[in-house]
């Protein structure tokens, strides 16, 4: 089974988890990059990103390579922004809805401490599915690494093998 990990990461935590999982599953990585980058410092970081997430925006993305014929599964990986998933995923889902409807779907969310469950529900709603094959929730795995988090990442990958 060939897996694509489709992720957006501002500060590197989701990127870190995505790369670990890709290594364990021999999955392909597809990074979503908004054409207009979100501010990544100070108060503007939370205001702009938070507003964009709450408003359900679909920011235009830099070109990415995603050939749905190649994959049976997509793992979405996202930070929690204002208790939902990051807007670049919304754009990707819109652009690939038909192909995604035929695939197994899993999710990884990284967060600081609140709103991960809600973000997973919102992502499920956006995908119009009732459940993910598997999901993984991690508190800032790059900025606050622990052996327990690494074990959770390994367990998640094992469950998808
Ligand atoms: C705009 C914005 C909104 C955020 N909202 C939340 C939130 O609602 N709950 C939470 O626990 N963390 C929140 N965070 C923190 C991130 O979800 C968390 O640090 C995550 O691990 C960052 O992933 P990244 O380093 O890949 O960008 C927010 C961060 C940003 C930039």
Written description of the protein model:
The structure is a single chain. This protein has helices at residues 13-25, 42-54, 87-95, 97-100, 116-127, 147-159; strands at 3-7, 28-31, 73-81, 84-85, 104-111, 135-139. With 161 residues, it is of the alpha/beta class. The protein has a single domain (3-159), classed as 3-Layer(aba) Sandwich (Rossmann fold), CATH 3.40.50. Strands 1, 2, 3, 4, 5 and 6 form a six-stranded mixed β-sheet that branches. The protein binds flavin mononucleotide.
Beta-strand content bin: 15-25%
Q: Please work out how many helical segments DSSP would assign.
A: 6
Give the CATH topology: Rossmann fold
Q: How does CATH name the architecture?
A: 3-Layer(aba) Sandwich
Q: Helix share of residues?
A: 25-40%
Overall pLDDT: 97
Alpha-carbon Rg, integer? 15 Å
Order of helices and strands: EHEHEEHHEHEH
List the domain count as a whole number. Answer: 1
Shape from CA axes? Answer: globular
What are the low-pLDDT stretches, counting only 5+ consecutive residues below 50?
none
Ligands and ions found: flavin mononucleotide
The CATH top-level class label:
Alpha Beta
Total number of beta strands: 6
Major β-sheet annotation: 6 strands, mixed
